[in-house]
Amino acid sequence: MKSFNKFSRNQTFDFWNFLTIISTFIIILPLLYIVVNIFTKTSNNFYHIINNLLFDYIKNTFILSLFSSLFSAIIGYTLAYFTVFYDFRYRKLFDILFILPLAIPTYIAGYVYGELFSFTGLFKGKIDIMNIYGGIFIFSIFLAPYVYIISKSYLSKISSNIIENAKILGKNDLHIFLNVLLPMSRIALVSSVSLVTLEIINAYGVVKYFGINTFSIGIFRTWFSLGDSNSAIKLAAFLMFTTFIVLSLEKNFRKHKNYSYINSKIKSIKRKKLSKSHEFIITIFSLLYIIIGFIFPIIQLVYFSMLTYKMMLNYETFLLIFKTFILTAISSLITLIIALIISNNARLSKNKFSGILARISSIGYSIPGAVIAIGVLMLFITIDNFFDTYFSMSFIVLILAYIIRFLGVGYNTINTSFLKIGLKFHESARTLGKSKIYTFFKIDFPMIKSSIFSAYILIFIEIIKELPLTLILRPFNFDTLSTITKKYVEDEMIYHSGIPSLIIVFICFLGIIYFNILNKNRRN
């Protein structure tokens, strides 16, 4: 260890900064490839898309995003408001149950509800759900927990003095909700709705199954059906710029809307006791959301699994689970390590350049998976053609795409933890002559290890659920749980999708519950 410390202290360059620059360059290169190739020669296919399909792509993506985000906001914020401000029966249990729909990927939810409302399903085709209205329903229900989590965190930090002052002025709960809490929560709502919107823009499985022509569908169709990479890149670039516009609007809104409590003492909120009738209404509303968003899909998946378990529980299925788990675990670990390097460098460096690198490297989560997949694949095809290699058919391509897409998830979680511990202990160790590397492993790492594990869980969940990116970049004749689920559905073998879907949901369920426990332990 002494020799290691001596070597680290005598370094002639900043190790963390060097790794950050290399990582950021590798991450940003595929996205730059898309930008550069916008200006390549336009094919006849692209003119056909502009004249006949582009309007539908824009219209459907806009309608789906607008109404799904609106209904997600209404559902998620209402549930958060109930949980924070009212004391009702089973509130603590509902607090956990409200986040469980996140364990069910939207494409699995779409398959389940598509079957439930089919002519052979439970509701016997009474409602046609296989359209844009059905897509809005799926996204609204299963993405509402994003709004719930962010809104609940924000509302729980509001000082009760504000509520009490409004009541002294004779205002009732409805007036306080509409004229006090909602305006104050605009930042939280815009942030969470932006996240929901980005998830909808990225979606592929639901819109493909429901027959909704969105940008993701257009990219896949241009790439696979027409075999036109140049047109696919142009569509991908258009979609990437659209997401940047969404992010810019969200950031601009937050910049001009800021609320603080510097003039009032922050006092924790005391939950209001409800009358039996009001408690009954809130309980029914909460139960209805849990039934639609979690219980119905689980029952349906269990039913699928019971019909096919004799055929599905075999060596091939166990091998598929093992391969998916190993790929996800390795990709998550590499992503986590890079997130640690970039986040640690950003907090230790005294220049703006490191902060810019950190922001650039974490933008991948804001970019649809199909866009990242095309940028990575085309970059490696160019490398293969130049060096006569076969990287584009290897797992390197898929893992790199996972890193680009989900690095922001790990970075944000770890960076938040770094901000909480500050630099006091780190600088004390440095004044004693310890190197940055030694100080990180001996001082910083033990203090944030729970956050590191939380970040790993989040990345793992996101990767195992990912569909569009995996579909494009997986090596030949290689499937994951998500791609095999889609394959069974498209081959009209939806019952066979039960077991792989249930495994994905179960893993996500365990991850979400454990993540929730870790967060509560950190707060306590």
From TrEMBL:
Localization annotation: Cell inner membrane; Cell membrane
GO CC terms of this entry: plasma membrane
GO process terms (BP): transmembrane transport
Sequence ranges assigned to domain ABC transmembrane type-1 in this UniProt record: 58-251, 321-515
Main location: membrane
Transmembrane segments: 12-36, 62-86, 93-112, 132-150, 187-211, 231-249, 280-306, 318-342, 363-383, 389-414, 452-473, 493-517
UniProt record similarity statement: Belongs to the binding-protein-dependent transport system permease family.
Name used for this protein in its record: Iron(III) transport system permease protein
Source lineage: Bacteria, Fusobacteriati, Fusobacteriota, Fusobacteriia, Fusobacteriales
